[in-house]
Design brief:
By secondary structure, the chain is mainly β. The protein contains one helix and five strands; from the N terminus they run βββββα. A five-stranded antiparallel β-sheet has the order 1-2-5-4-3, with no helix packed on it. The mean pLDDT is about 90.
Length: about 70
Amino acid sequence: MKITVDKATDSLCFWLDEKKIVESEEIRPGVILDYDENNVVIGVEFLNVSSRKTKEDLSNMQFQTA
């Protein structure tokens, strides 16, 4: 899994797989699902993250695993 914050596009992306994206769907304003050739979700993108979180929040993320 890969997580990126892209300042140029003001987006936060969670990539579950590195397969090629063949289709994207905006399921809510500013929330995009990316699909591979088998129609499996391989990524989730959140747009306009600078209006949702501060720079400090975006630079310091916490993760929890079960």
